[in-house]
Each structure stands twice: as structure tokens, then as C-alpha cells.
Design a protein that fits this description.
Blueprint (H helix, E strand, L loop, with lengths): L1 H24 L9 E3 L3 E18 L6 E6 L4 E8 L2 E8 L15 E7 L4 E15 L11 E18 L7 H5 L3 E3 L3 E16 L19 E19 L3 E20 L1 E21 L3 E13 L7 E18 L2 H10 L9
Antiparallel strand pairs: 1-9, 2-3, 2-4, 2-15, 3-7, 4-5, 6-7, 7-8, 8-10, 10-11, 11-12, 12-13, 13-14, 14-15
Protein name: DUF4421 domain-containing protein
Organism: Algoriphagus pacificus
Keywords: Signal
Length: about 350
């Protein structure tokens, strides 16, 4: 597991800086009647965010649904965007998370959501330890079901080509690096691949909720890959207000394995989906907005196991924009780490 975490961290930073360098090195080909770009402006943000990857297990024949939620919480963070380079740092604050379990293992949640011109790129590298089931999903208990031992890993990459990228800037909605002046829409196509595992020290479904223990399991692995297609669009109104939606469906082929004494492997094809929504106000001086990203990965099914791995990330941003001078521009050019990835 430590080697897998190191690998994912390395991939995360390589992709992060490659996307940043590509955005900086690429000459703007935006249609200026639709998109307004201000490379001299720095956007400084304060935000609240919540990241998660949950596991949903649906029992067949109309049985209960169990939702395993990680021991993550609400984070408060600071960040900035300048010349298409974005850096954010956030962490949980105790008083904002009274329901988190104390002294549980740490977790890693690495997400890249990059929107260079004509592209939609998402990378997930997530390593969670410690899950709970809320009483609302339990028929025979009024207390949270605690599984400090439960580990979930998911790693994946999604890449889409945006056909109308010269008139539609998803970056303007996501990190306010530019301003979408007029409404625009675009279809896109792409490919994605995701894999992961979940395991515990004992059977994962609570024994007091499941009469047939033969339907239980303590380990699971999966891999899914396939093409996707979707539609993205931004509606601009009221002199700076915007609504942005991005939705895609994916037809994934792959396998899922479950272990309860014996190993069960099932191959198949199953649909999944990816949703993104952004809304708020964006101007040359400030922005107030809400971002939401949600990836559903239904897993290949058999008669006993119907479950899905779902990843989300939502944020509330307050952004203040300032114009920087040539001295800072020269200074930033020297310390900008993406210069290591640029071609001479």
C-alpha cells in the first residue's frame, strides 16, 4: 500500500504541473467575444470544501442499502490562481466537524480537476481508512456502525475532448481564471479508466443487518474502463452571474471480485456517469461561487452484490482579484515550478 500511495502522489504532481504548464505555454485561442482573459490578474481565494469517496452496497431483491462514509470532514482553505497556475491548501477544522471520529487513521485524497482549452481532465488517487454507516441506513440499530479497520482505494483517470473549447471556458467557472461573457455549449467525447479495492479485518456488512451471511464479504476489487460522451454548457445572465453544467455517461467494461471464504469474479459491461456543476457570480474584481464534482462508478454485479463507489468534491469559494505589476510577474516566472515542464 505505501508504494501505491507514493506512485499515486507522483502521478498527481506530474499531472498537476503538466496541466499547469500546458495552460501557461499555450497561446490563447479563445473567441474574445465569448471569453475574457486577464493574465495580469491574480485571484486569491478562501473556501470551504468537502471531499469524499463512499461505498454503497445494495442488497438484492429489494433489500437494504448500506452507505459507508469516510471519516472525512469539512475543510477550510486558502489558494490563488495566477496565469492559469492554481494552488490550494486546505485542512479540517475541529469545530466544523463535531461528528468526525477522533484518533482514527489519516487518509489521502488526491484530486486533479483540470480544464485547459478544449480538454476536461480528472485524476483521482484516494486512500481512505475508517468508515461509518449512519443509523438512517440501518434497520436494527440507532447508533453509527463504526469500521476503523475498513480500507478503500480508488485510482482513475478521465480525459475528454471539448469540441467548442474556443467559446466555452470551464476554467472560468471552476477557478475563475477567466470570465465567460456569453452563454456557450459544447459536446465532448473521451475515455476513462478506474480501479480500486475495499477490505476489512472481518465481514463488511453488519451481521445484525444480514440474515444470510453467505451474501457478505470482507474484500473486493474492481477495474472498469471505456468510452464516454457528454455535454457541457454555461449560461451567463445578469451581468456576471453564471450556471455551468457538465454531464457525461460512460459504458464501462471490466470485472469485480468479492471474497467470502471463496473468491467470486464477475466480468461485464455497466453504465457509469460523471456530473459537474458550478454556479455563482464572476467579475474582474471578485467572485462568489459554488462548485460540485461527482463521479459515480457502478460496479459489475452478480445476484448477491450490487454496489458502487462514488467520489465527490464540493466547494464554496470567495475570490478577490488584484492586478499585479511587472516586478511580481518577473519574480513569479522565476519561482513557477511549471517552468521545469516547458519546452525551450
Amino acid at each position: 500500500m505505501p508504494q501505491l500511495i507514493k506512485y499515486s502522489v507522483s502521478v498527481f504532481f506530474v499531472l498537476f504541473f503538466l496541466f499547469q504548464a500546458n495552460a501557461q505555454g499555450e497561446k490563447s485561442k479563445f473567441d474574445t467575444s465569448y471569453i475574457e482573459v486577464h493574465p495580469e490578474v491574480m485571484g486569491m481565494r478562501m473556501y470551504l470544501s468537502h471531499k469524499f469517496t463512499d461505498l454503497k452496497i445494495n442488497l438484492p431483491n429489494g433489500g437494504n442499502q448500506f452507505r459507508y462514509e469516510p471519516n472525512s470532514g469539512l475543510n477550510i482553505g486558502l489558494g490563488f490562481t495566477y496565469q492559469n497556475f492554481t494552488l490550494n491548501i486546505a485542512g479540517p477544522i475541529g469545530f466544523l466537524n463535531p461528528d468526525r471520529q477522533k484518533d482514527w487513521p489519516k487518509y489521502w485524497d488526491l484530486q486533479v480537476h483540470a480544464y485547459p482549452q478544449k480538454w476536461i481532465i480528472d485524476f483521482l488517487g484516494q486512500f481512505y481508512t475508517g468508515y461509518t454507516i449512519d443509523p438512517e441506513y440501518l434497520a436494527n440499530s440507532d447508533e453509527k456502525y463504526l469500521r476503523e479497520d475498513m480500507k478503500l482505494v480508488t485510482i482513475g483517470l478521465n480525459a475528454n475532448y471539448l469540441f467548442n473549447g474556443e467559446r466555452l471556458s470551464l476554467a472560468s467557472s471552476f477557478n475563475q481564471a477567466s470570465i465567460q461573457k456569453k452563454s456557450a455549449f459544447s459536446p465532448f467525447i473521451g475515455f476513462e479508466a478506474y480501479g480500486g479495492s475495499v477490505k476489512g479485518d472481518s465481514l463488511l456488512i453488519p451481521s445484525f443487518e444480514l440474515m444470510n451471511q453467505g451474501m457478505n464479504f470482507d474484500k473486493s476489487r474492481y477495474f472498469l474502463a471505456g468510452p464516454n460522451a457528454g455535454l457541457a454548457g454555461t449560461l451567463v445572465f445578469g451581468g456576471g452571474f453564471f450556471l455551468t453544467g457538465v454531464a457525461s455517461v460512460n459504458l464501462s467494461g471490466g470485472f469485480t471480485e468479492w471474497q467470502n471464504q471463496d473468491m467470486i469474479t464477475k466480468w461485464g459491461v455497466i453504465p457509469t456517469y460523471f456530473l459537474r456543476g458550478f454556479a455563482g457570480f464572476n467579475s474582474r474584481h471578485f467572485s462568489v461561487n459554488v462548485n460540485y464534482v461527482y463521479k459515480n462508478s457502478n460496479l459489475v454485479r452478480n445476484e448477491n452484490y450490487l454496489h458502487s463507489v462514488n467520489t465527490g468534491n464540493y466547494r464554496v469559494n470567495l475570490v478577490y482579484k488584484i492586478s499585479v505589476g511587472p516586478k511580481f510577474e518577473r519574480f513569479f516566472a522565476k519561482i513557477n515550478p511549471t517552468r521545469l515542464f516547458k519546452k525551450n
